[in-house]
TrEMBL record:
PANTHER family: HTH-TYPE TRANSCRIPTIONAL REGULATOR YJDC (PTHR47506:SF1), TRANSCRIPTIONAL REGULATORY PROTEIN (PTHR47506). Pfam families: TetR_N (PF00440). This is TetR/AcrR family transcriptional regulator. Keywords: DNA-binding, Transcription, Transcription regulation. It comes from Streptomyces tauricus. Residues 8-67 form the HTH tetR-type domain. Gene3D superfamilies: Tetracycline Repressor, domain 2 (1.10.357.10).
Length: 189
């Protein structure tokens, strides 16, 4: 019988493989390929997760804290709300220049799944909603005329830029920060 440590190790291997493969190859990846990459049997996977959908959702959930840390400054950061918002776009420009960048993993999952009720879509919508909420909170603190609208506009720019850079259709250097700056200026921030 497997010990708790063995199960955690198997679970970690599955989630590590899922994180990499779903991001690189998309959510249509088969269970066999996932298990092969993780070095686990399908039986072991199904002992830990009821379905591939649950593996995908768990891999996105597991990735969320790192994603959030990459984009958001902590509450103790002394930057102004405007600088905090621009920081997100500076980070996007930085990561999008990496060779293995495929776009925002949460947006990719939403676009591929096309089902807001899918377990992975639920996770992705929550993570994307947190980004919009962070924009809204900073826009409100920064005195934007309509913080809600500005947050939605910034999310739209972020997601569009992520998708175009992920598809290698656009180089973002300077483009997203200048676009975000124009939106901030127009909002009175």
């Amino acid at each position: 019988m497997a010990t708790t440590t063995d199960k955690a190790s198997t679970r970690d291997r599955l989630l590590d493989a899922a994180t990499e493969l779903f991001y690189r190859d998309g959510v249509s990846l088969g269970v066999e390929a996932l298990c092969r990459a993780a070095g686990v049997s399908k039986r072991s996977m199904y002992q830990l997760f009821a379905s591939k959908d649950e593996v995908l959702a768990a891999s996105l959930e597991r990735r969320a804290p790192e994603y959030g840390r990459m984009l958001h400054l902590g509450p103790e950061d002394p930057r102004s709300p405007r600088e905090r918002i621009l920081y997100v776009f500076e980070q996007l420009e930085r990561v999008s220049a990496e060779d293995d960048y495929r776009g925002c993993p949460y947006l990719s999952a939403l676009v591929e799944l096309k089902d807001p009720e899918h377990p992975a879509s639920v996770v992705a919508l929550r993570v994307k909603g947190a980004l919009t909420e962070a924009f809204r909170a900073d826009a409100e603190r920064g005195g934007a005329r309509d913080p809600e609208l500005l947050a939605r506009q910034l999310t739209l720019v972020f997601d569009g830029a992520s998708a175009r850079a992920g598809a290698k259709a656009e180089t973002l250097t300077g483009l997203t920060t200048s676009t975000a700056t124009a939106l901030l200026d127009a909002s009175g921030m």
